[in-house]
Amino acid sequence: MLELDPSRSQRFTASMAPWLMSGSHEVIQRLWLRAIGDPRYKPDDFEHSWAARYGIEIEKLAKRWVQEHGYELTDLGKQFFHPTRKWCSGTFDARVISRNGVPCNCAMDCKAINAFRDTNEATTSYTAQLAVQQECGGTDQTSLLIVKGGGEPFEVPVYIDENYRALMWDTIDHFWHCVETLTPPVPLRFPRIVPPDKWRRIDLDRDADLPNWADEMRALLDGWGNTEESARAYEQFKIDIKGLFPDDCGRLVSASYVVARTRNNSVTIKRRKTHG
Q1: In the sheet that 257-261 helps form, which strands lie side by side, from edge to edge?
Q2: 72-94 in b/e burial notation, b at 16+ Cβ within 10 A?
């Protein structure tokens, strides 16, 4: 029987909201295991990654930058608890209290995103986090301070629809009820560890009792077998083209193909876009 371990359990934080709202059963399961302090929860080690370290450092620089350009910030890194949900908190990157002399009360969160990521998509994905922060910190506005691909930080206002807000809190409240009652919010799925001496042999050609995925597996194996040789040939063509491409050539065009050298000296092969 599961038991809540207070020494390992956590409160619900604003940063968990986007993951919960993703609807992914796997993600929700991990959040629940983490929240109840279950030893089966394993951190993904993201906090030790380059992306996490970069995000931490660029956040400091981005906030200094906007402060030097007319923003007045307060509550940097301050945690606030929800007025009625005492188990829920949000930690501000900053509260904007003035933009170029114009007073405001805005929860602002800094995010570093890939240069190729769509800004609107990124904004949407973090809306739930900002909605929780707004209610915990009692602000009138929310926004993201985005550093995209290492460029100059820019602020994006985030408007939260009331229907979305209601749905979000309904989801969070349901999830936290599952935490407090130790009720799995989704069917739990854990990888089954089977020792080698217990492994079985399956023969899809001769076994009388076949698994329900037998036809799908046969189709996948046929697909793999039919494309194996062409995949090998494809890779060899790439190797041969790059080997023949002159070291002093930056771009080669032939029919519908383009071979190009990037600034870091790697070679790419692409089809040219045609306009019909």
Answers
A1: 251-254, 257-261, 267-271
A2: bbebeeeebebeebebbbbbbbb
Query: Domains, the chain, ranges and CATH?
Result: 12-181 (3.90.320.10), 227-271 (no CATH)
CA–CA distances in Å: residue 169 to residues 7, 126, 178, 180, 229: 26, 15, 14, 16, 53
Block means of pLDDT (10 residues each) for the chain, 276 residues, are: 48 92 88 88 79 90 96 96 95 96 96 90 92 96 94 92 90 92 78 67 87 86 85 85 83 85 78 66
pTM: 0.65
Model pLDDT, residue 8: 42
Radius of gyration of the chain (CA): 26
What's residue 195's pLDDT? 67
Q: Which residues pair with 254 in a beta bridge?
A: 257
Please tell me the distance from the alpha carbon of residue 110 to that of residue 103, in angstroms, as a whole number: 20
Tokens representing 131 are 């909605």
**Residue 178 near residue 184 (C-beta atoms within 8 A):** yes
Distance CA 68, CA 87 (A): 36
